[in-house]
């Protein structure tokens, strides 16, 4: 299958991992990197983001149509393509090309980020919406969606894998470790743990953590900077406890990080949720907490117990690798759902191309 793949593509973006999964599945990707679009001047970019309009938005849509005419893809896959105009989706439909919207963020959630103006208009026009939340399925249908599939965030098997020889605590130089952003109350929670005398290690973008931590806290707790790929995997291996928080401002059921930690063979201590407990057996494949008091109790329980942590981490690793928590499985489910729309496409569906774009 030829996939016109529209996403923010860099070695550190999860959209790039899904592209790799498509190619491993034998599909041909025609990539469109959304990082190549947008006003260069900072103020103009902010205005563009809020209005979702302007010359770069128009260029983006023209380029997609031109690429469709040139390559005749079987599917258009859009990963949070907020510049996409409704008329462009109409044009793809006229060419007989099914369209997929893959959206990790929560359009219907409480955060209310800017930039959704065009996306709201395109919801009824995509052939398939992919969402990671049960609540979003009826919300998309109520907004006029044609079809919706519930998927989950996943790990990338070429990056998130266990150490050839399992680490021991003698090799682990991170105690209670969190790698990620400072959403919600994470900074407050982690500093409270540190004040209890626990060995907290925080990594992630400094631009996120410096405003949330005092100078003393940042100096004491922040380590190694922003970690990706090999460095990220190594930090998981070197952590006695790997914390995974839900992003409540996005109404998440689960997060990438939980599946990545488990796939790497790390001990996972995650926020309890129906999404997490449905995917890992509690206290056997992962450990969960709700609220600060339970988090503190679980950290104190497991930090000194290397044998229990190693046992649970190994079981969680097996679960991740055998239960479809990888990108390849999730991408395959999406393409299977849209496959009926790609059958029977012939010259007749393309004959209208000249009428649409002339």
Task: Describe the fold and architecture.
This is Glycosyltransferase. Keywords: Glycosyltransferase, Transferase. InterPro entries: YkvP/CgeB_Glyco_trans-like. Pfam families: Glyco_trans_1_2. The protein has 2 domains: 2-153 and 326-357, Rossmann fold, CATH 3.40.50; 169-322, Rossmann fold (3-Layer(aba) Sandwich), CATH 3.40.50. Helices cover 44% and strands 14% of the residues. It is globular and about 60 Å long. Helix 1 packs across helix 15. The two termini are 27 Å apart. Strands 2-1-3-4-5-6 form a 6-stranded parallel β-sheet, sandwiched between helices. It has helices at residues 14-24, 42-51, 55-71, 86-94, 117-122, 136-142, 186-195, 206-209, 215-221, 229-237, 256-263, 274-277, 291-302, 306-322, 327-342, 347-350, 353-357; strands spanning 2-7, 28-33, 75-79, 99-102, 128-131, 148-150, 174-179, 200-203, 239-244, 268-271, 287-289. It has 358 residues and is an alpha/beta fold. The longest helix is centred in the N-terminal third of the chain and has 17 residues, at 55-71.
């Amino acid at each position: 299958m030829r996939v016109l793949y529209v996403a923010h593509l860099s070695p550190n973006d999860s959209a790039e991992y899904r592209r790799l999964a498509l190619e491993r599945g034998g599909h041909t990707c025609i990539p469109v990197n959304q990082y190549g679009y947008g006003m260069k001047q900072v103020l103009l970019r902010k205005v563009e983001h809020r209005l979702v309009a302007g010359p770069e938005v128009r260029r983006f849509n023209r380029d997609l149509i031109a690429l469709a005419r040139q390559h005749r893809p079987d599917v258009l896959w859009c990963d949070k393509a907020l510049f996409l105009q409704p008329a462009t989706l109409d044009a793809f439909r006229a060419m007989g090309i099914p369209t997929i919207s893959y959206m990790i963020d929560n359009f219907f959630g409480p955060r209310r980020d800017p930039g959704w103006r065009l996306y709201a208009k395109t919801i009824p026009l995509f052939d398939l919406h992919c969402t990671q939340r049960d609540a979003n399925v009826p919300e998309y249908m109520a907004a006029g969606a044609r079809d919706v599939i519930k998927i989950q965030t996943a790990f990338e098997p070429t990056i998130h894998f266990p150490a050839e020889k399992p680490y021991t605590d003698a090799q682990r130089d991170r105690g209670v470790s969190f790698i990620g952003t400072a959403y919600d109350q994470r900074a407050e929670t982690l500093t409270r743990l540190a004040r209890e005398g626990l060995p907290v290690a925080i990594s992630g973008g400094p631009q996120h953590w410096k405003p949330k931590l005092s100078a003393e806290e940042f100096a004491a707790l922040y380590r190694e900077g922003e970690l990706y790929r090999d460095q990220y995997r190594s930090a998981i291996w070197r952590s006695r406890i790997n914390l995974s928080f839900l992003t409540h401002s996005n109404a998440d059921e689960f997060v990438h990080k939980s599946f990545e930690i488990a796939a790497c063979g790390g001990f996972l201590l995650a926020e309890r949720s129906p999404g997490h407990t449905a995917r890992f057996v509690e206290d056997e494949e992962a450990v969960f907490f709700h609220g600060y008091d339970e988090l503190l109790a679980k950290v104190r329980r497991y930090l000194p117990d290397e044998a229990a942590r190693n046992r649970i981490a190994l079981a969680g690793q097996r679960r991740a690798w055998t239960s479809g928590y990888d990108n390849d499985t999730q991408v395959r489910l999406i393409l299977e759902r849209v496959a009926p729309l790609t059958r029977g496409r012939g010259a007749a569906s393309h004959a209208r191309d000249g009428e649409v774009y002339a």
